[in-house]
Structure formats: C-alpha cells, structure tokens
Write a structure and sequence with these properties.
47% strand, 9-stranded parallel β-sheet
Length: 141
C-alpha cells in the first residue's frame, strides 16, 4: 500500500453505484458498480464483487472483478480472485488459482493513460493491414 496511512473501506454489507474517488488507499469488501479512482492502492477482498473501471497506483484482486484496470505500478491477482477484463500496468502478478480472462498490456508508462493503449491499437491495426492478423498471447494459469 502507499505510504499514506489513510484507507477508505467499503464494508461487506455495502453496495455502491457510481463514481468512487479516494485520496488515499481503498479497500472494498462489498459491492461496487461504476468507476473507481484512487490516488493510492485499491484492494478487493475475497468477498468483494466489483464491476467497474479502476485507476490507481496499484491494485490487488482477491474477489470477483469485471472491468478494466489501469495502474501505474503493480496489478496483483490473488489465489481465488477473478478478473474479467483488461489490465494495463507496469507489473502483473497472477498467483496460482487466480483466474484472468482478458488482455494485459505491460508498459513502463502505464500510468500515463491512453498513449500506450493507442500505440498498442495502432500496432495491431498495422499488423492486420499487412495481411497478418496477430492473435493476443494467451496465458493459462
């Protein structure tokens, strides 16, 4: 977690819809649907159910997540966690028993946002125009 000691907690019985913004770290034990923006780290506990797009420093997923993740540092998928969506990060860690269904873009400039995604889309488009369609790498864990 980031060095800032502030942690916002969405409790087990809570269900939020909309935009969640945290100036520090965020831990989700309940349900969230919408957008999540945190200046610190985001942790999804094993009982969490989240359908959102996440932007943060780092993220750790131990629950069920559906959406896109954009982090400046590390994306971590814990044992028993599930991610259905795309991840853009500097580092990706998938523990044995974690389920990841989507695409991963590992980029030093992950936090800069769309520039890395645009470059990936342009290179994919150039490959398709050249007559060769490149399939994404598949990771089976």
């Amino acid at each position: 977690m980031a060095e800032n000691g502030e942690v916002t907690i969405v409790g087990t019985g809570a269900r939020l819809e909309g935009n969640v913004v945290s100036a520090g770290n965020l831990r989700i034990d309940g349900q969230v649907k919408g957008q999540i923006n945190a200046d610190g780290d985001v942790v999804l506990s094993p009982q969490s159910q989240v359908e959102a797009d996440i932007r943060s420093q780092n993220v750790s997923v131990a629950g069920r997540f559906k959406g896109n993740i954009l982090v400046k540092g590390k994306a971590h998928l814990a044992r028993g966690g599930r991610i259905d969506g795309n991840i853009t990060s500097k580092t990706l860690v998938v523990e044995e028993g974690g389920i990841f269904h989507g695409q991963s873009i590992m980029d030093q400039g992950a936090g800069s946002g769309s520039s890395s995604q645009q470059a990936a889309q342009q290179s994919a488009g150039a490959a398709a125009k050249g007559g060769e369609e490149k399939q994404p790498d598949q990771v089976k864990v």
